[in-house]
Amino acid sequence: MKDTPKMKAAHRILMQQAVAVLNACLLVTVGPGSPGLARAQDNAPPPAAVPAAELDKLVAPIALYPDPLLAQVLAAATFPDQIQPAAGWADQHHYLTGDALARAIEGDRLPWDPSVQALLPFPSVLGMMASDMAWTSDLGNAFLAQRQDVMDAVQRMRRQARDYGYLQSNPQVTVSSGPYIEIVPVNPAFICVPAYSPAVVFVRPRPGYVVSGAVHFGYGITIGASFRSWGWGANRVVWPSRTVVVNNVTWNRTWVNRAQYVHPYPVQRYEPARRVETHELRPRSEVEREAPRAGRERVEEHRDVHRDERHEERR
Q1: Helix (H, G, I), strand (E, B) or coil at 220
Q2: What is the rounded distance in angstroms from the CA atom of residue 35 to the CA atom of residue 43?
């Protein structure tokens, strides 16, 4: 029996669920951050290869993002477990912009990867990613395991949108006409988030349909020098080699090295706060030895109190 696209998709979901269960079991067995967990994650099988047609649909919601924003979204999608808490933080601090937002990010000692923190100035982008975690996880996994194929899919979708007349240069972005379609902000410090419907812009327009307004670049965020630590101003896509560059360094996180790879950001990384009982961090034998001593101290303290009370009564 020939596999249908639905069967392949179901198989991919089952594989991802199996990997998630394995990782959860390993967290209980060896603990987070241990070398054993990192090695086990490295040895986990990659997700099933996603066919080109499905990759096209997977990248369609972000294919028309300007290259600097596209680079940040692809990198952040490889940390799907951090997207929802980051989206919540961004929504709570939506009133902050510029230097004030950068100071708040640093001051809160956020534990997420810098690629995720780089999207905090874009609540709508994080909100979109958090609203469909299955899609975000699939995108991140595909970028880890099939980077070349993902980047090829972005180019295919851009070419369709351009050939149908939807994707054009405008006062906010410049769309190149070469063999590789680049979308670059006219002002590098002003990043626009395009609004468009994938169901419209990647389909041949019907006769009489006005294509000029199908992709709207009106909403944008000013990203100044205070955000350079998160790679802004030094991130791009080198399309001939399908290379994603963040903070002027090639993003080389893959499925194989995802447990160890640390991108060279200048921002400080912080460990997530964990509430752990003290005795959980000490050998059981040590706790058992100290328990009787603690009991004796409480008894002696109790006796001292009663002795003082009897002394007061005699007086």
Answers
A1: strand
A2: 12
pLDDT, mean of residues 177-197: 94
Per-residue confidence (pLDDT) for residue 285, from 0 to 100: 45
Report CA-CA distances (Å) from 194 to 57, 71, 83, 166, 211: 17, 15, 20, 12, 15
CA distance 152 to 213: 26
Q: Are strands 220-222 and 249-250 parallel, antiparallel or unpaired?
A: unpaired
User: Tokens 């080699």 appear where?
Assistant: 241
What band does 213 get if pLDDT is binned at 50, 70 and 90?
confident
CA–CA distance, 272 with 304 (Å, rounded to integer): 44
The 10s digit of each residue's pLDDT in 51-89 is: 999 999 999 999 999 999 999 999 999 999 999 999 999
- State the DSSP code for 112: S
Q: Which residues, listed in sequence order, are joined to residue 184 by a DSSP beta bridge?
A: 174
What's the token pair of residue 164? 């149908």
DSSP string, 140-189: HHHHHH-HHHHHHHHHHHHHHHHHTT-----SSEEE--SSS--EEESSTT
CB 252 within 8 A of CB 91: no
Name the average pLDDT for the chain. Answer: 81
Dist CA 187 CA 193 (whole Å): 13
pLDDT digits (tens, 9 = 90+) for 225-270: 999 999 999 999 999 999 999 999 999 999 999 999 999 998 888 8
Distances (CA, A) of 246 to 34, 60, 138, 165: 28, 22, 21, 30
pTM to 2 decimal places: 0.75
CA atoms of 50 and 177, how far apart (whole Å): 28
Q: What six digits make up the tokens of 27?
A: 């967290």
Place 4 in a pLDDT band, splitting at 50, 70 and 90: low
CA of residue 30 relative to chain centroid, distance:
24
Task: Kindly provide the b/e burial profile for residues 178-195, where b requires at least 16 CB atoms within 10 angstroms of the residue's own CB.
Answer: eeebbbebeeeeebbbbe
Rounded CA gap, 149 and 147, in Å?
5
Give SS3 for 246.
strand
d(CA 206, CA 177): 24
